[in-house]
């Protein structure tokens, strides 16, 4: 993806500055003396605007060292004004996009056992799956089939409701980012509804797809996260402001969450991930070993979106048991099964695609 020319200018300025600092300033500080007391807020603010973490800033006389090995001269900061990237309040996306289109979201027990959060997640997946892109979002209750994203309840600083990683970049711990963090205690303290939590989840999922805040530029948000360059690229086909976007930076509690993706949010995801081929999968949400009581009950497709019908097959080669079902209702009632080893298979058909068959061997004890 191409970055805007203005951003390229900023990148070139960085490069020039670092080279210049290394040539001129380091040699003057052969025995640098750390002097943290004297870091002026005006420098910290500028360094942060440049996209570096202010907690990483170390001051040595005439230079700052950030992120351990990047040198910025005070003189540079004194004269440097962040170029305004013609802020225009438009949709933008990160440099990298997802390299796969079936996204398995691990939904652990604290999520699925909480009806408010479960229905919020279900609705967010349904919304993204209905957007018309080539992305398919799945809810998985087990990890034995692998997963791509994880949902984690945790405390986040200040008034942060949620946080997520951009595609292709390591997270704070340096491993490939795939986490959506949700500040459940704060959300509960605010008394947000399931629809409002859906809005937050839809927003965080947007980041995981590479969508920036639509108001990132007027907010002066940096182009890096956790020390890694994210990039910001306007969509050439979205040339208007979008106050109804789910990708606005701030959530207003007066927003009831009844509307999630705006028409331009949908255009954005369809531009990044156009539906030009069909690669729909589905997954079976049952552990590979279950008791007979756990095996029966309702099974839903992992894909949470509009479907035309769903097919199920359950076979037991030892006994010759064979059960099939084709239904437009996504609730599949698993028949009562005697202990044994069964192969569960399922396939879904949507308006655009027929999925491949999913298959899982399940032992019923
Ligand atoms: Zn955000």
Automatic annotation (TrEMBL):
Q: Which Gene3D superfamilies match?
A: Collagenase (Catalytic Domain)
Going by the entry's taxonomy, the superkingdom of the source organism is recorded as: Bacteria
Q: Which residues form the signal peptide?
A: 1-22
What keywords tag this UniProt record? Answer: Signal
Q: Which GO terms describe its molecular function?
A: metallopeptidase activity
Q: Which organism is it from?
A: Chitinophaga ginsengisoli
One short Pfam name that applies is Peptidase_M57
Is Signal there in the keyword field? yes
The molecule here is called Dual-action HEIGH metallo-peptidase
């Amino acid at each position: 993806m191409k970055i805007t020319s203005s951003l390229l200018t900023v990148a070139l300025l960085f490069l020039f500055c670092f080279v210049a600092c290394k040539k001129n300033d380091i040699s003057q500080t052969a025995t640098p003396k750390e002097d943290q007391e004297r870091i002026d807020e005006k420098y910290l603010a500028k360094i942060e605007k440049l996209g570096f973490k202010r907690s990483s800033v170390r001051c040595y006389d005439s230079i700052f060292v950030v992120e351990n090995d990047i040198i910025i001269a005070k003189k540079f900061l004194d004269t440097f004004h962040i170029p305004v990237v013609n802020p225009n309040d438009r949709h933008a996306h990160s440099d990298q996009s997802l390299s796969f289109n079936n996204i398995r979201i691990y939904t652990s027990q604290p999520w699925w056992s909480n009806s408010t959060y479960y229905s919020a997640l279900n609705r967010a997946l349904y919304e993204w799956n209905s957007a018309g892109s080539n992305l398919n979002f799945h809810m998985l209750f087990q990890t034995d089939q692998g997963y791509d994203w994880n949902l984690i309840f945790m405390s986040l600083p200040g008034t942060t409701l949620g946080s997520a990683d951009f595609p292709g970049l390591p997270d704070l711990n340096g491993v490939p980012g795939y986490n959506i963090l949700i500040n459940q205690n704060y959300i509960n303290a605010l008394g947000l509804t399931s629809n409002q939590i859906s809005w937050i989840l839809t927003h965080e999922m947007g980041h995981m797809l590479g969508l920036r805040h639509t108001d990132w530029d007027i907010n002066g948000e940096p182009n890096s996260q956790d020390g890694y360059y994210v990039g910001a690229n306007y969509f050439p086909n979205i040339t208007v402001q979008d106050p109804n976007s789910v990708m606005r930076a701030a959530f207003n509690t007066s927003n009831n969450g009844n509307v999630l993706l705006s028409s331009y949010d949908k255009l954005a995801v369809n531009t990044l991930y156009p539906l030009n081929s069909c690669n729909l999968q589905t997954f079976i949400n049952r552990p590979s070993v279950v008791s007979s009581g756990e095996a029966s009950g309702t099974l839903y497709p992992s894909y949470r979106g509009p479907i035309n019908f769903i097919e199920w097959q359950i076979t037991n080669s030892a006994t010759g048991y064979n059960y099939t079902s084709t239904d437009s209702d996504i609730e599949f009632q698993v028949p009562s099964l005697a202990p044994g080893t069964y192969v569960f298979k399922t396939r879904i058909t949507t308006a655009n695609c027929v999925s491949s068959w999913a298959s899982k061997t399940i032992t019923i004890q």
